[in-house]
Amino acid sequence: MRTQVGIIGAGPAGLMLAHLLHLEGIDSVVLETRGRAYVESRVRAGVLEHDTAQLLADTGVGARMRREGLVHTGLELRFEGVSRRIDLAALTSGRGITVYGQQEVVKDLIAARLAAGGEILFEVTDVELAGIDSDAPVIRFAHEGTIRELNCLVVAGCDGFHGVSRGSIPASARRTVEHTYPFSWLGVLAQATPSAHELIYAQHERGFALHSMRSPEVTRLYLQVPNGTELSDWPTARIWDELHTRLATNDGFTLKEGPILEQGVTPMRSFVTEPMRYGQLFLAGDAAHIVPPTGAKGLNLAVADVRFLAEALTTWFRQGRGAGLDEYSARCLRRIWRVQHFSSWMTGLLHRPTDADEFSHRLQVAQLEYVTTSTAAATTLAENYVGLPLDWSSRVDRPVTPAVPFA
User: Fold this and answer.
1) Catalytic-labelled residue, pool 278, 297, 328, 351
2) Any idea what DSSP says for residue 382?
3) I need a surface site. Which of 77, 145, 161, 227 has the fewest CB within 10 A?
4) If you compute the radius of gyration of the chain from its CA atoms, what whole number of angstroms results?
5) 201, 222, 278, 328: which is the annotated catalytic residue?
6) DSSP codes, 16-37
7) Could you confirm whether 370 is annotated as catalytic?
């Protein structure tokens, strides 16, 4: 088999990259270890930044998102029994977010790729990379009982944290920076009408809680729990009792209940691999970085990665200029570390520390009061939450006018 770009992973990063390359007339083949039904049903992120939603619409794969997605122009921060709204649109010149499940994005991208004659091979096994430090990399794999080779000019590793791509880079050629948070999220998907029109981020003395949604009929809810928590420790009645407690307000907020369709525990961590390129292998998405879910950034960061990569590959294939590929890692990492900082800040703002005392609680409340009453502080939250413009990374490199020293 031959193609221009071999893409490992049929998640949002790999599929979006294949779609963007197709629009530029660049061939690719996507390899995925899971089956199609699995990748189209796994529930992950559900908040799309303004530019992510716009990219889907602009590239012809956003019609269903526009029909079914829930556009939000604000969010609630809830603490001390009171909710205060952050008006995202007013603070960011009309930008907002769209609630639309990652699995729905994946369904739309798969349908678009197959309709365009694109090749996606599901249920491949024994994936190995060879020659990634040369101009003729090869991806070896097994599919339907046959050992095959995919010869390409570029390999895009979009296969997540546990994929083979990152591990194919020699340990001496990569550096890992990571942080594990001392708590996890217990998440549930419930067949219940959302109890609010927008997302609610609640800081409570018993721990953080989040009220989100996936559709007008399905609610997504999270609770901060200790690391090592077992689902067996949280029967349905306990989950709802704790959600009622942490989301309660002084004016009598009503949380709507319903059958729990899915539940799971997600550890909280930050992870970054540097650089994101080795030879002709380019990492994108969770293969290169993970952020805590508090800021709703994982999927959006992956989409930004492949948008940068698609631009650089288009210039390389069309004009033979490789400057964009050479700058790919640094360009992505500037945005990644900005997002890591925002996600870590949001996490610290809202979660109860494991060594919490009255002092730390008062500091959190003071910070929340400032964020919700200061236009400057609220704007910082809003512009990061809806997503910095994609050209933000380029602005970082602009010369800074030196300050005038004191006389």
Assistant:
1) 297
2) H
3) 145
4) 22
5) 201
6) HHHHHHHHTT--EEEE-SS-HH
7) no
**Domains of the chain and any CATH numbers:** 5-46+101-174+275-354 (3.50.50.60), 178-268 (3.30.9.10)
- The mean pLDDT of 20-44, rounded to a whole number, is 94
Q: Is 297 considered catalytic here?
A: yes
Query: Annotated catalytic residue: which of 19, 50, 293, 328?
Result: 293
Q: Which residue among the candidates 100, 222, 278, 385 is catalytic per the annotation? A: 385
Known catalytic residue at 22:
no
Res 144 pLDDT > 70: yes
Give the list of residues 6+ apart from residue 124 with CB closer than 8 angstroms, or none: 31, 32, 33, 141, 142, 143
- Whether a cis peptide bond, with omega within 30° of 0, leads into 137 is no
Nearest partner of 349 among 366, 332, 335, judged by Cα: 366
Catalytic residue (one of 72, 204, 211, 289):
72
Q: Are residues 200 and 219 in contact, defined by beta-carbon separation less than 8 angstroms?
A: no
Burial state string for 153-184 with b = 16 or more CB within 10 A and e = fewer than 16: bbbbbbbbeebbbbebbeeeebeeeeeebebb
Q: Identify the band that residue 400 occupies on the pLDDT scale cut at 50, 70 and 90.
A: very low
Q: Which two tokens stand for residue 298?
A: 């994982």
**Interatomic CA distance for residues 155 and 164, integer angstroms:** 12
Write out the E strands in 23-153: 28-31, 47-48, 70-72, 74-79, 82-87, 97-99, 119-121, 125-130, 138-143, 146-151
Give SS3 for 50: helix
- Could you read off the pLDDT of 197-214 as tens digits, one per residue? 999 999 999 999 999 998
Contact 301, 335 (CB under 8 A): yes
Tell me the C-alpha to C-alpha distance, in Å, between residue 258 and each of 214, 233, 313: 14, 20, 47
